[in-house]
Amino acid sequence: MMFNKNFEYYLSLRYEIVLKPEADGWSASIPELPGCIGAGDTIAEALEMLQDAKHSWMEASLLKDLPIPEPSNNYSDSHNG
Known about the structure:
By secondary structure, the protein is α+β, with helices and mostly antiparallel strands.
């Protein structure tokens, strides 16, 4: 992938994650990345699906040359997102 350096940079940023209990499990989302949502039977599954969604969201945005917002929180200097 030509955008690999930018892709890895954006994946390393730490975005706020919102977890919500649902009738059939959990949902997880990143509010700063519209439409970036994961769901699962457990919190761990929802977070794993969210990581997959984040990967796809950023890949699609970079391929389409769309802007990717950086986190507005104070955690963006750590690698664990």
